[in-house]
Amino acid sequence: MKQRRLIVRLGLVVAAVSVVAGPAAAQDPRLTGRLDAGTRAAVEAALDSARAQGLPADPLVTKALEGASKGATGARIVSAVRRLAGELASARTMLGYASTTEELVAGAAALRAGAGPSALQRVRAVRPGAPVAVHLAVLADLLADGVPPDTAAAAVIALARATVRDADLVAFRQSVDRDIALGASPGSAATVRVNSTARADAFTNTTPNAPPRRRP
Amino acid sequence: MRHDSEDLVARAAAELRQPTGLSAGFDARVMAAVRQARRPSRWVLAWEWVREPRLVALSPLGGLAMAASVAALVTLGVWAAVPRGVTPGVASSSAELGEVVQFVLHAPAARAVAIAGDFNGWDAERTPLVAAGSGVWSVALRLAPGRYTYTFVVDGTRFVADPAAPRAVGDDFGTPSSVVTVGRGTMDQGRAS
Fold first, then answer.
1. In chain B, what is the straight-line distance between the N-terminal and C-terminal CA atoms, in Å?
2. One domain, residues A120 and A182
3. Which residue among A10, A121, A166, A187 has its CA within the 20 to 30 Å range from the CA of B41?
């Protein structure tokens, strides 16, 4: 009798947890009031599909909110969310299943900007087990600036190999921006700046975010 | 009278003690019927178990524990739903918590400027910029490490990309956006335009 009561109590607790946690996992409250019912349902379906594949849902929610904020139609919002889900999946294929959300977001941006899939794989291969989100973000920005894909990838891989700090990666990208604004061609600006950045970092390499180097 | 009833009981008992004559195939028929009867599936049994009414005994302490569990789950759900990564106007910076990024826009004709982006749920009303004089608007936000897309919203209707930051490639919604990247120990700061 006691055992039966215990089972009934446990059943009640499980039911209560399912009632509360079930909808919380299935529906994102940030979408409430921002999307109409039809768009929200379609976006929620895309989120469920992404979750089922083990992809992060948060960037997709953010994309839907961006569309809502910009007054886009429901169809356009759903299309953008699905497109981003596909890009995140592609980025994960190239970067590995252990990649962080930040890495997948930056990788997806780099792919959209024109990076080849092998560029993502090479960046990961140079820094196995170390974060590469900023490297990939800089790669995406260089491509957006008009740096040719091969030059941009080579620059970022060279900086990754030199274990340049995140701050210096961003400074490198800003320098390339400035040079382009002053009239340099995007390709030559990246090539010139990558050499100076790698050299400067080698002198002042305190590398708090660099992976530990192996002793010979 | 008593004698009659005793006699009746004795006769009934004697009748009951008589061996029952069963036909030769009785056992076989019973076993065949048993074999034919299908055992209810696990789901049917489970459904019957769920449908069967039960008296549930719950101590006040057990009830309180259950209520506390439900409240904790609701709180967790709300906490998980709140967008994080931005604290307007924080002056300090830390490598672990991200960096303080200054967003600046030169918009002399604007009556109000706000910023909407990945870091604030693209809510144009949530993060207004402050007029710093001479048509310059600015706001400082602490951002966790990551890559963020954002845009300025001028007078609540006009979307303006940050001229001092890289453009987001392939905007999905036909309006310009910019990108800011924050790493560990990074300060990717917007500039006055």
1. 123
2. yes
3. A10
| Chain B touched by A209 (CB under 8 Å) | yes
Asked if A113's CB is within 8 angstroms of B166's CB, the reply is no
- At residue B55, does pLDDT exceed 90? no
How far apart CA A110 and CA A114 sit, in angstroms, is 6
pLDDT at A206: 47
Residue B97 pLDDT grade (very low, low, confident, very high; cuts 50, 70, 90): low
pLDDT in tens, A49-60: 999 999 999 999
Contacts of B186 in chain A (CB under 8 A): 134, 166-167, 169-170
Q: How far is CA B2 from CA A26, A178, B5, B87, B135, in A?
A: 79, 124, 5, 101, 121
Give every residue of chain A whose pLDDT is below 50, as ranges. Answer: 19-25, 206-208, 210-216
Give the separation between CA B109 and CA B168, rounded to whole angstroms.
25
Domain assignment of residue B109, yes or no: yes
Q: Is B180 exposed, middle or buried (0-12, 13-18, 19+ CB in 10 A)?
A: buried
CA distances to A9, A67, B20, B22, B31 from B26, rounded to whole Å, are 47, 77, 12, 7, 9
How many H-runs (helices) and E-runs (strands) does chain A carry? 10, 0
Give domain status of residue A6, yes or no: no
Looking at the fold, whether A64 and A135 belong to one and the same domain comes out as no
| Cβ A151 vs Cβ A191: under 8 Å | yes
Cβ under 8 Å to B: A residues 160-189:
165-167, 169-170, 173-174, 177
Give B95's pLDDT tier (boundaries 50, 70, 90): very low
Q: How many domains in chain B?
A: 1
Helix (H, G, I), strand (E, B) or coil at A17: helix
Q: Do A103 and A206 belong together in one domain?
A: yes
Burial of B140 (0-12, 13-18, 19+ CB in 10 A): middle
Using CA atoms, how far apart are residues A155 and A173, in angstroms rounded to an integer? 10
Strand partners, B98: B94
Pairing assessment for the beta strands B113-117 and B130-131 based on DSSP bridges: unpaired
